[in-house]
Amino acid sequence: MSRTLKYDIPGEDPRIAITDVAESGWSAAFDSARGLTDGEGASAGRRFVLEIGFGRGEFLLAMAAKAPEVDFVGIEVSFKRTLKMARKVARAKLSNVRLIEGRAEVVLRDVFTPASLAEIWVNFSDPWPKVRHGHRRVIQSSFAVHAAQALAPGGRLYLATDDVPYAHQMNAVLRAQDVLVNCYAPWPFLPEVEGRMSTGYEEQWRAEGRPMHFFAYAKPERVEGSA
């Protein structure tokens, strides 16, 4: 017997439309979550972290609860998952989380200003294993370009997958991006990262014996050749 989807939000609705961000900006979006009036701008200058494909949401919720001084944005293509996450954020009374329903590559390209993000996380995104579906994978060359543009100097891009072919694609895409630097060099990825928080999907894949691949790439504090 399937459960009935609950549409009510038990508190402040953390979802925000792309058009609202384009019109008012991120600072206003987070100020409204904190009950601040227009123009106070208390959110300006705070660190800004993005998770793409938050799934069941435990990773994003834990990060936001642990770092209330940081503003977090979660992107998810699924309306149902976004709605369920909105209920979780509202129940947790987290004023430092905003959610967008949409395709990651579109939101990353159109919604975030250059050098605005401190971190970007993509945890176990759908590998779309069939060849004809390969174009649907989040991690493509265009994604790496837009991620590099959105990251602030010193910012980091974190990727994780349990799918071996997808890990090879991630490695190829990231190595071809000349702005970002591999934090785990000379290794392309690590099978374990000490202190890294697990997601529910990760625990499930580990129980099935799947291999882990963790990537971390950074945008240098200074671009070579700059003043």
Question: Can you describe this structure?
Answer:
With 227 residues, the protein is α/β, with parallel strands linked by helices. Helices cover 34% and strands 19% of the residues. The protein is built from eight helices and seven strands, in the order ααβαβαβαβαβαβαβ. It has helices at 18-24, 26-33, 58-66, 79-92, 104-111, 141-150, 164-176, 200-207, and strands at 48-52, 71-76, 97-101, 117-123, 151-161, 181-182, 213-218. A seven-stranded mixed beta sheet has the order 3-2-1-4-5-7-6, sandwiched between helices. The longest helix has 14 residues, at 79-92.
SSE class: alpha/beta
Distance between the termini: 64 Å
| Number of beta strands | 7
Mean pLDDT: 89
Q: Strand share of the residues?
A: 15-25%
Order of helices and strands: HHEHEHEHEHEHEHE
List the total number of helices. 8
Low-confidence stretches: none
Most strands sheet: 7 strands, mixed
Helix content percent band:
25-40%
Overall 3D shape: globular
What is the topology, as strand order, of the major beta sheet? Answer: 3-2-1-4-5-7-6
The whole-angstrom Rg is: 18 Å
Secondary structure elements and their pairing?
Layout: H1 18-24, H2 26-33, E1 48-52, H3 58-66, E2 71-76, H4 79-92, E3 97-101, H5 104-111, E4 117-123, H6 141-150, E5 151-161, H7 164-176, E6 181-182, H8 200-207, E7 213-218
Parallel strand pairs: 1-2, 1-4, 2-3, 4-5
Antiparallel strand pairs: 5-7, 6-7
